[in-house]
Amino acid sequence: MRRLIYTLLLIPLSFAVAADDGAELEKLYSALNMLSQQQQAVYQQFQMVQATRRGNFPPLYGMPIPAQPNGQIVNYDEMVAARKNAILREESLFQQADQLLARYNEIEEMKKPLQSRIYDLTLNNGND
Q1: Model-level pTM?
Q2: How many structural domains does the chain have?
């Protein structure tokens, strides 16, 4: 008889645990979704930086000095400054791409414990 009473007392407790697990799962999925959205935004930024890097820069080395429309030769100092600015811009875009890739990977690492906990809760709920 004691066992029956003890078992009957544990039934509401198991429902409370299941409800807590359900609430935790909901929060975990919400957090995982938020991180996935952040990761997608970072990836889109990365793609834009990569496209800019590929599309806007002709080869800088060995470029002939272009003639001006009026036939005058370009000022050497202006040409050197323009090339230097192009190189600096390319390096800046390269750094941006590296930072975005690092952030993408950082978010991926943040997702792993959430995914693991979701797996654990899902596995335990299936066994109850």
Answers
A1: 0.68
A2: 1
Q: What is the CATH number of the domain that holds 116?
A: 1.10.287
Q: Which residue's structure tokens are 């799962």?
A: 25
Length of the chain counted residue by residue: 128
List Cβ neighbours of 65 (8 Å cut-off, separation of 6 or more).
73, 74, 79
For 62, list phi and psi in degrees, rounded to 5.
80, 10
Per the CB < 8 A criterion, the answer to whether 34 and 85 are in contact is no
pLDDT (tens digit per residue) in 14-52: 444 555 778 999 999 999 999 999 999 999 999 999 999
- Of 93, 102, 98, nearest in space to 51 by CA: 93
Strand residues in 47-124 grouped as ranges (E): none
Amino acid at 38: Q
What is the span of the domain harbouring residue 87? 2-127
